[in-house]
Amino acid sequence: MIDIKTQYAGLTLRNPLIVGSSGLTNNPERNKEFEKAGAGAIVLKSLFEEQIEMQSDVLMQDSDYPEAADYIHGYVKANQINSYLELIQKTKELCTIPVIASINCYKSDAWIEFARQIQLAGADALELNVFFLETDLTYSSENMRDLYVSIIRKVKETISIPVMIKISKMVGNIPALAHTLTINGADGIVLFNRFYQPDIDINNMQIVSGNVFSNHSDLSDTLRWTAIVSGKIPGISIASSTGVHDWEDVVKCLLAGASAVQMCSAIYTHGAEIISQVLTCIEEWMHQAHYQSLDQFKGKLNYANIPNPAMYERSQFMKYFSNRD
Known about the structure:
Elements: E1 6-8, E2 11-13, E3 17-19, H1 28-37, E4 41-43, E5 47-48, H2 49-61, H3 69-94, E6 99-104, H4 108-120, E7 125-129, H5 141-158, E8 163-167, H6 174-183, E9 188-191, E10 198-201, E11 206-209, H7 219-232, E12 238-240, H8 247-256, E13 260-263, H9 265-270, H10 273-288, H11 316-321
Parallel strand pairs: 3-4, 3-13, 4-6, 5-6, 6-7, 7-8, 8-9, 9-12, 12-13
Antiparallel strand pairs: 1-2, 10-11
Helix pairs in contact: 1-3, 2-3, 4-5, 6-7, 7-8, 8-10
């Protein structure tokens, strides 16, 4: 009997496939469909503090009373948070699989306030969707690390449910940051988040939005850092995210050392039915490879378990491609 259960960040999942945070998971009934299709867990669409601020600014533009700013901001904030808490509660009523909330903030006090209310609403875990695009020339990687650590410490002091941090691949020393976050309380690390992709329209001479979906080529970085981080930090709980489009991608992430794998763009493209298709193919592959559980092959090809770990390092580029014309 093949067992595809997995332990991720303190949660027991019936399988490693998680529906990633997106507009797809902003509807309780749709979340139930994902559960029926076989998803191991669901990450709800992120609650963005920035979006709350933007909506407040829009309303203020239509106001003739500047002194009403605090009232308008408070109203918008309360309304957005209440809507999100309702999403958690209704999804929990319909689903039996773990429901993971997600927040993105830029003020330290907001992380704490949102986290506390999310736990009270019944979320099984919380994913901190952390991303700061810093352009200040004086802002160092140490400043960024200290900010991440401050966030995880404060959130863990406030709530008792598992907390994962979803980080960017642009944070510098990824293994060092993952290790620091883990020893400071993070129950899991998500590699990686995907944010707005800018593009340039050369005909109209303006900045436009690029492709919002990931593609197969994005998986390479996800595999590289999943393998390196899991190999250098034994016992760390990783969810691979970005570039996962089919069952083979999921298996690759597990071989690299992931405990769970998030899928999003492929579900947008193919619908919820791809979840059951992926799980069926994984079980068939395990049967053919004579694996009875995920633990038998999880991390088998990570940085610590292959003869030549330098295969995951950029220095190999010249060795393998320097002779190509």
